[in-house]
Amino acid sequence: MEIFDCYLMIINMIGFILSVLNMWLYSHTAKGRIDALLTVISLAGGSFGILTAILLLDRKTTKGNMMFRVFTACVFVIQVIMLLMLKGYHADHITFAFWTFFHQHKILTVYLGIMNIITFAVFAMDKFHAVKGRRRIRIVTLLGLAFAGGSLGGLFAMYLCKHKTQKDYFTLGIPLIILMQMAVIFYMMNIGW
To answer: I need a surface site. Which of 10, 18, 85, 183 has the fewest CB within 10 A?
Structure first.
């Protein structure tokens, strides 16, 4: 086993343990959380361990933990792509021909177009419900639609409708999701898909 593989196993175990510790701190103390340390561990390669702890032990999302979850999920996807590229799972040559890729993969292009239209409409509907005092659309649903390919529609709706522009899990989360999706598309372009 290579040193890098050992490093990844260790950093993810540390991420899992610290994430469990952080969950305990959230439920038993008013202060003393280690969110900043978990962010560093996530960036250092431990995002899989953190996500595993979240999925196994703490699936309840709140406004307080939403940004960290969006951040960790996006970092995880980007790190998986980087790992696959480092391990050699890519085409012989690297390309940046996005227009050619989307022209050749019309189903993906149509899917992304539909997802962005739907996401824009759902964000706009949530804004309408907010103004009228009606029942709101869940944050997880809005972010989930953005994560599933509708991030540009969500971003446009946020600023055109002036909706969710004061919430960091949207103002930072949606652009981070866009970067993650760009990395996914870049990787898809460069594996010969």
So the answer is: 10
Q: What span, in angstroms and rounded, lies between the C-alpha atoms of 132 and 142?
A: 19
The residues, any chain, with a CB within 8 Å of residue 103's CB and separated by 6 or more, are 109
**pLDDT of 79 above 70:** yes
**Sequence-ordered list of residues with C-beta below 8 angstroms from that of 28, at least 6 positions apart, any chain:** none
Lowest-confidence region among 38-42, 59-63, 120-124: 59-63
pLDDT one-digit tens code per residue, 133-172:
999 999 999 999 999 999 999 999 999 999 888 888 899 9
Angle, CA of 44, 35 and 61, to the nearest 5°: 110
**Which helix or strand (DSSP H or E) is residue 61 part of?**
none
Residues with Cβ within 8 Å of 63's Cβ and at least 6 positions away in sequence, in order, are 139, 167, 169
Q: Do 90 and 187 meet the contact criterion of CB atoms below 8 Å apart?
A: yes
